Predict the 3D structure of the following.
Amino acid sequence: MLYDAIIIGRGPAGISCAIYTTRANLKTLVIGKHDSALLKAEKIENYYGFEMPISGNNLLEAGEKQALRLGAEIVTDEVVGIDKAESFTVSCVKGQYHGKSVLLAPGAPAVKAPVKGMDAFEGRGISYCTTCDGFFYRNRKVGVVGYTDYAVHEAMELLSFTRDITLYTNGMELNISPASTEQMNAFRVNTKKIKGLYGGESLEGINFEDGTTEDVDGLFVAYGSASGVNFAMKMGIMMNGNSIAFNEKMETNIEGLYTAGDCTGVFKQISVAVGQGAIAARGMIDYVRKQKNIRK
């Protein structure tokens, strides 16, 4: 099935966008894990239209019910990759979805792994993008720092370049789906807690808290869940510092790919996210309708 609009993120930005695209008769799919930071907000008192405080959970629930009533589809899943050919392919833990346009609204920037010395080796052995830098480690020993389906996905992508791959969980318990479990035989797993990294001009290896060490040529960070920034780096989306760059339509430098919400680096407020979602929806609606006219 080919959707007109695929929205990554179930927060205010994503749901706002879905309300507009669905009302414009675009077949719309929203993908997210229901893990918005708003779920932790007990009282919201500064959002327009609510005389009394409302919890973040209730606000999100109301938004989703509105989008569903209008005809949007919402699936609970984790996005691990995005590719574009003639259309977009959004890879998730449970399957793949295809769309004519995509909104990136997964929330805040990527979480860095809590490993001492990692910043010092960024660009010199530490990478956040297997697609960007995997080529430089052909037939070399590499590792992925992470413990979720996202980390397994990144390790599998590295198989195109090398078979010497280790997944370092940094003492975290693996939190992966059955599908990812089936892929674990393709690489090694090291569950030791990392104390720090060592090297000279570039990364040379890992020190563990138990006193052991392990040499490694490159280390790819895929800690927690993938963020909009992770996808941006892999797809070649232009960045504005640590945030995704966009134009007046909320469109990135990749045609048909839009962004909204906290990953844009703008004032982190619900009202701003909702507004950005609406603007992005307008752009997506125009883009999809233009594509349909071209194909007539």
About this structure: The longest helix spans residues 270-295. Helices lie at 12-23, 56-70, 130-133, 149-158, 178-181, 228-235, 270-295. The chain has a mean pLDDT of 91. The longest strand covers residues 96-104.
